[in-house]
Design goal:
alpha+beta, Structural Genomics Hypothetical 15.5 Kd Protein In mrcA-pckA Intergenic Region, Chain A, 2 domains, 5 strands, about 45% helix, globular
């Protein structure tokens, strides 16, 4: 089941900004002020030393929340990854990065993965000219991602994103105005900055 509670609470529990809040908003600023204070009445006072298994669990949960996937979805991606020859962590990150909702987010069409997931599920996104409405859709090399019509680009947060000239687009994506294209394969680089993928693999390999 996908988590629908307080996003700031989750980020504070993990002790990291997971990209769940739009940068520049009051809610995001409030999160940054309290990021090092765990949620709950007692805060840091009741924190215990974390075990190896506890650390692995924390990294797994962090990965889940960053990409907004359920436990079953993440475990399925892991099982798909171990069936392939090569680095399981790489294939796990590949399946996550190539989800349509993540591609829409990485292209800068939406400020968060949650908002990009909403765009997809509300039939606002096309892949190769056809509307795709399920966020977990696995995109492929050469796919062209665009909006269903010009009205979508007038949605306030979408319009603001498209006007943002400071967005950094990953090397495996290409963006021209309101159209994006997959021109390469994702790497683990972006995920490795936030999550210890090796610990996630070890958690599921137990």
């Amino acid at each position: 089941m996908r988590y629908t509670g307080s996003r700031n609470r989750i980020a504070r529990r993990q002790g990291a900004d997971l990209g769940l809040k739009t940068v520049g908003t009051k809610s995001h600023a409030r999160l940054l002020r309290k990021l090092n204070v765990p949620p709950g009445q007692h805060g840091n006072r009741l924190r215990k030393k974390i075990s190896e298994h506890g650390f692995q669990l924390k990294e797994k949960q962090k990965l889940r929340f960053i990409f907004g996937v359920t436990e079953n979805q993440l475990k399925r991606y892991f099982l798909m990854g171990i069936k392939k020859t090569g680095n399981t962590a790489f294939f796990l990150s590949l399946f996550l990065e190539k989800r349509l909702d993540n591609v829409v987010y990485r292209l800068g069409f939406a400020p968060t993965r949650a908002s990009s997931r909403q765009l997809v599920s509300h039939h606002h996104i096309k892949v190769n000219g056809k509307v795709v409405s399920y966020p977990s859709y696995q995109t492929k090399l050469g796919d062209v991602i665009s909006f269903e019509n010009d009205k979508t680009t007038k949605i306030p947060y979408v319009e603001k994103q498209l006007e943002n000239k400071d967005l950094i687009i990953p090397n495996w994506l290409e963006k021209k105005a309101a159209v994006g294209k997959i021109i390469g394969e994702p790497t683990t680089e972006d995920i490795d900055k936030q999550v210890n993928l090796r610990s996630v693999i070890e958690f599921y390999s137990r």
